[in-house]
Design goal:
The chain has helices at residues 9-25, 27-40, 46-63, 69-84, 91-104, 109-117, 128-140. It is mainly alpha-helical. It has one domain (9-140). The chain is globular.
Length: 141
């Protein structure tokens, strides 16, 4: 996954494709690896995080029926944190994280709602992508 930092778009696309391909064979393993990698590389620039998040979304979408609850929780927690890590709106990065939540919400809607609702603080305007995620969850379900 370190190759996601390569500036060559073709290399980045190959990493995305490889993650998706491996995700077909071992979805749980790939999702856990992506989670661990993003948590360990907290300073990784957001364009590189997007590649991994998009691969996670694809793996989740293609394997939603076989995803177990514990993996779903890990993915939900990661995506929620990625989405709200920056107070500023960083469209592509936060949209990728939101899309992961929406994909997991196809089967684990209660868990996604539970996590996203924790991001609401009384008296504080919610993050743009919290509202966007709620809207997309409503549309997809």
């Amino acid at each position: 996954m370190d190759a996601t930092t390569d500036k060559e778009p073709l290399v980045q696309e190959q990493i995305y494709n490889a993650l998706c391909y491996l995700g077909e064979a071992e979805p749980e393993e790939i999702l856990h690896c992506c989670d661990e990698y993003l948590r360990q590389h907290d300073k990784l620039a957001y364009p590189h995080r997007i590649i991994i998040l998009k691969a996670m979304e694809t793996v989740v979408k293609n394997n939603i029926s076989s995803l177990d609850k514990s993996t779903a929780k890990v993915v939900i927690f990661l995506a929620s944190n990625e989405m709200t890590k920056s107070k500023e709106v960083v469209w592509e990065w936060q949209q990728a994280a939101s899309s992961v939540l929406v994909a997991v919400g196809q089967r684990f809607i209660n868990k996604v709602m539970e996590e996203v609702l924790t991001k609401f603080q009384p008296g504080i305007l919610p993050h743009y992508f919290i509202m966007q995620t709620f809207a997309n969850l409503a549309v997809s379900n």
